[in-house]
Design a protein that fits this description.
single chain; 2 domains; 4-stranded antiparallel beta sheet; elongated
């Protein structure tokens, strides 16, 4: 049997079967949680054609109608067999989606709780040399601004799309809960996937507008006042109002968090000036 799956973060897909009789024209029939759909791969009679149809959990009749219409559009002659297969697995599919929804919600809550715990940790005063050896944590560092970038950069705090029908903002990613992302770090949603996303208001439109919420960022380096070598230089990123306080050679105290971001072989801290 031929199988095909997405790359799930969780075990999102299940293969459904017919407990009454085999469906000869089907190679694989799966419910896929990520896209809230059922996907059928037909056999050689239909040139291994793939059919995807949405699952509407609160209206199984509409799920049936949508599936039937797609089969007719694809000119699948034995749609009655496939409809029986779909309905035979109705409880299994809806139960699968409900369970996966709970799994994702639990994982999301655990992640938020971990982030909140990390935010509440006290700031620990360390030297620049100690900070360079750390991978994460809230710290306070004293040093001299020894260098600054030659330009401002943009970092992304939020990615969302505006509905092409009602103009409602629909969030795709919120980076302020962890750290802002450089433009080249933030993944760009596939335009086809974006067009197929449903608005929180229930609108469906092929004119969604991808939007990003940027923040100004500026890179500096902090240096120990007693030593002057590259090993004692700590890369720092400043945000918004902190950028106005930069003066090369000034002694400063920096507070912020070190994140696990690697660039040019070094750990890149995310900081704001005190």
């Amino acid at each position: 049997m031929t199988t095909f799956t997405e790359e799930p973060k969780y075990p999102d897909n299940i293969e459904v079967t017919d407990g009454t009789e085999p469906v000869e024209i089907v190679n694989c029939f799966m419910s896929i949680f990520n896209s809230k759909s059922v996907v059928v791969q037909l056999n050689h009679k239909y040139q291994a054609k793939i059919i995807e149809s949405p699952v509407i959990l609160d209206d199984w009749k509409l799920t049936n109608e949508s599936f039937d219409n797609i089969l007719k559009d694809k000119m699948v002659a034995e749609e009655d067999k496939l409809l029986r297969l779909l309905n035979y697995n109705a409880n299994r599919i809806t139960g699968h989606f409900s369970q996966q929804t709970l799994t994702h919600m639990d994982a999301g809550r655990a992640r938020i709780e971990r982030i909140e715990r990390e935010k509440s940790l006290p700031y620990v005063e360390v030297s620049i040399y100690q900070a360079l050896k750390m991978h994460e944590g809230n710290i306070k560092v004293k040093g001299m601004i020894s260098a600054g970038s030659d330009k401002l950069e943009k970092m992304i705090t939020r990615v969302f799309f505006r509905c092409g029908e009602c103009d409602t903002s629909n969030q795709l990613a919120d980076y302020m809960k962890t750290r802002p992302r450089f433009v080249y770090e933030a993944p760009i949603p596939n335009l086809r996937d974006l067009k197929e996303k449903e608005c929180v208001q229930g609108c469906k439109s092929f004119e969604h507008e991808l939007c990003e919420e940027p923040i100004n960022a500026y890179r500096i380096e902090l240096q120990e006042t007693e030593t002057f070598n590259d090993l004692g230089r700590l890369p720092v990123i400043l945000f918004e109002a902190c950028i106005n306080k930069v003066a090369i050679g000034e002694q400063v105290i920096v507070t912020g968090s070190i994140q696990k971001k690697r660039m040019n072989g070094s750990c890149l801290p995310m900081f704001s000036l005190d």
